[in-house]
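Deliverable D4.2, example record:
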Amino acid sequence: MYEREEVNARRVEKFSAGRRWCTIMDKTIRTIRDEIGKDREGVIPSLILVIDTNILADYAWARDSNVIFLVEEIAPDFSDFLIIVPKICEVEFKLITREEINAWKNLQQLITSKIKDLKRYAGFEELHDRLKDDANNLSHLITKLKDAMAKEVEILSKLMLLFSVNLPLHYADSFYISKDPEYGLLFEDSLVFSFVKLVGQSIGDGGKVLFLTKDHDFDNEKVLNDLGEVGVEVYFNSGECIQRIKNILG
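Output generated by the structure prediction step:
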């Protein structure tokens, strides 16, 4: 008798946990749809593109003409198309920009210090002048990267939707994904993956969700299968992604 009561109690507890999970998932989906709708006057776009940190950097640093065309030419012309940036990508962008600036600064300082040594060697005047020009050009690159920090704010406020709202399930889901060897993702990448998956679940059959990244850590069977199950298409090449977007938008 007591064993039967214990079994029944476990069943009730499991059922209650399942109902709580469904409630939280429903709330998460509503939150995503509400935030997307706010950016489009209550209308959910038929095509959504979620981009990773490296794609945001491609645009802000002007290092991929395809991404520039996507953001400046395609996105503004179609109200039924929305680019979304997960909050973690904004944070990572600031971090990698600072790292990039410091790396080029270190190289510039090294070149500058060695230029002085070249003056002691006869016959290397041309190399001396070329390295001096390189050091000056690096100053322009460093300035450009610093400007990208301010440009990023403009990008996110006008051309893309920065999704900064905390989502139920998101962080817990990301934590467990980062611990699962089948996914092979670090926590930061798990945050991106989990967000993309939730967007796919939120849009469902009512639209199309694409994910553009150059991080091949996402080129994993488990990751791709999970995203495919919620209707998300993954692209690692910006040109291929643009072609797919054009085909959808017509």
